[in-house]
């Protein structure tokens, strides 16, 4: 079964989008299909994939602005990245946080209701940096959470808050939700980063992915040229390619990944 994974952390700038697109790039590089769902009003996954929104495109906002089972299928578009599809987002999605509809947090789940996702090896939700309704909506729709964090004191504390949110969603309404992995992102070789990494590994054990993602400028260069990191040749792109490919293997996404 295709897993729907939420890449989350309420803290901004920790690497949620970079990890979403890094995994999408790794899947694409292996000839595998992935659906990215941009659930951030900043739309960084949308622009990172080289997509320019047009009036006729449906967005995540459209899925959450009404209650239509299966409507996610109508919002999927192909992107310039081979084998990477997208449900795009823009700033209109910010309006959802002030929407008082009773079923609001279920609408994303309802939008995916009944859909056959077997063409994809994974569905990756790029989440906004908040613990608001958008994140709750994703956690209601997802099977698993990949918590992305930088190895810093604030980010480590942020994981505790995220865990509490996940526990609340597990109690009701999504008992099937699993915290699958903590991913250390934007890792530098400073003493502070090494200390926090040890702290996280001591606290969370195997929950922390063995693979961490180094901080390398090739990520920004690839992102600003809308290029999959696995097709980017500048700087130390190779180290990032290896990291995202290794992380993908650890997450065992999709039928081929699960068999690996
Ligand atoms: N491994 C990396 N090496 C270098 N820069 C990185 C890396 N990962 C992310 N960045 C840069 O850090 C910044 C924040 O990364 P990103 O947008 O992925 O974080 P985010 O958690 O999605 O942010 P937000 O909370 O705003 O959505 C971006 O400028 C990005 O290019
Ligand atoms: Mg982001």
From TrEMBL:
The keyword Calcium does not apply. Residues 3-177 form the AAA domain. SUPFAM superfamilies: P-loop containing nucleoside triphosphate hydrolases. Pfam families: AAA_31. Keywords: Plasmid. InterPro entries: AAA_dom, DNA_Partitioning_ATPase, P-loop_NTPase. This is Cobyrinic acid a,c-diamide synthase. The lineage of its organism: Bacteria, Bacillati, Actinomycetota, Actinomycetes, Mycobacteriales.
